[in-house]
Amino acid sequence: MKILITGTTGYIGLRLIPVLLENTVELVCCVRDLNRTPVAYLNHPKITFIEVDFLKKETLNNIPKNIDAAYYLIHSMSNSSTDFSNLEASCAKNFKDYINQTNCRQVIYLSGIVNAKTLSTHLSSRKKVETILASGTYALTTFRAGIIVGSGSASFEIIRDLVEKLPIMITPKWLNTLTQPIGIADVISFLSKGLLKSELYNNSYDIMGPETLTYKEMLLQFAHVRGFKRWIYTVPVMTPKLSSYWLYFVTSTSYPLAASLVNSMKVEIIGKKSDINQILNIHPIPYKKAVKNAFKIIEQNGTISSWKDAVNTPQLNDSLGKHINLPHFGCFKDVRHMTVIDEQKTLDKIWAIGGDNGWYYGNFLWKLRGYLDLLFGGVGLRRGRTHATEIQTGDALDFWRVIYANRNEKRLLLYAEMKTPGEAWLEFKIVKNELYQRAVFRPKGLLGRIYWYAVLPFHGFIFKGMIQNIIKP
């Protein structure tokens, strides 16, 4: 049995793969950039990775015709594109048109609960995608979920930030909106158990946990699990824009994602009951249990995927691989090299850089740069890293994006997602027992050149101290 997975490197896709592999299936996983192939599955005998961009019809020819079923997990919470809905519709249409030519019997689509009369921009787009997919010659099964609770999910991490940072919260009135959260493990169970179940063909099902809660109740229950006492007061005067800025500055979310979430959270959406739990023998766990399970994963450093790793930098949307080779012309550079004393420990330090581990020198200046980035609408340092000691291509790393990470080649390359008047790279590479540390900046116009010379004095001791501490045994 051959199963196609789209959205392979996304939050859901990365968690679905190991569950499907427990069965006797062969997976064909679509990635927009082969450089983002998950390291854990690079040489797996049951997985084939293919490069597909669903906005480019010609790349769909890489998909084999002899697939039995497919998962459609392509979606975004970004407001970065003014033509967001049309782009999602184009992806769905291209997918549908090509899958019609294959042996595919079933497509499983994970959508959002869309039972309200007034929908947010993103839920309206999900509904439009579902309509497009339903017009295919295969059978469509749609699972519609609300708030998904799990380590690394956007909703979980945002609630975590609010609860752990703010003992007292003055909040917008949409915190009284009702919702039905569901644990990530239950979502994966629905997706995996629904595979090629003929009784689910050409049907849609709302999947949700056993409770209906307000966002305020979710915050308070989260605080209870963590052993915190929190006071929350809602006010009617906070506009959607102010609400978005409130989330942006307090939590690790980007402003576009914050605006999307506020737009969605204002709408009360309650799922329709069905017999899907009985059909698949799934009994969703309560919200508090889902939160506790998420923290068990976090404590074991076992978070598989995170919303933070979604690429949202325009320069990187097409391919990370285009940025693997450092530019030379028209660039400013800070290049240093030192002899490595203990190669294994040096590599360990490089692979653990950023996040809670810091940058090994001048961390207060890195934090200051992060705060300045936030003021100008950037991501700041709040994203941290998904795993404390492991890293792979495509991961978010504070205000950097991992362009290339190959421990065998002893090379780590980062691309800046902070707000800068130009493009910036930071590379660590060990060659013949020498650690080379390269900072490269390609300025954009006069402002870019002024920026480089303005930060040059700080680079002088930050980069010197960083490489010295990295090679320390």
UniProtKB/TrEMBL annotation:
Domain of life per record: Bacteria
InterPro entries, alphabetized: DUF2867 (IPR021295), Epimerase_deHydtase (IPR001509), Ergot_Alk_Oxidoreductase (IPR051604), NAD(P)-bd_dom_sf (IPR036291)
A Pfam family of this chain: DUF2867
Residue span(s) of domain NAD-dependent epimerase/dehydratase: 3-111
Membrane-traversing stretches: none
Name under which the protein is recorded: SDR family oxidoreductase
Species, as recorded: Wenyingzhuangia gilva
Lineage, uppermost ranks: Bacteria, Pseudomonadati, Bacteroidota, Flavobacteriia, Flavobacteriales
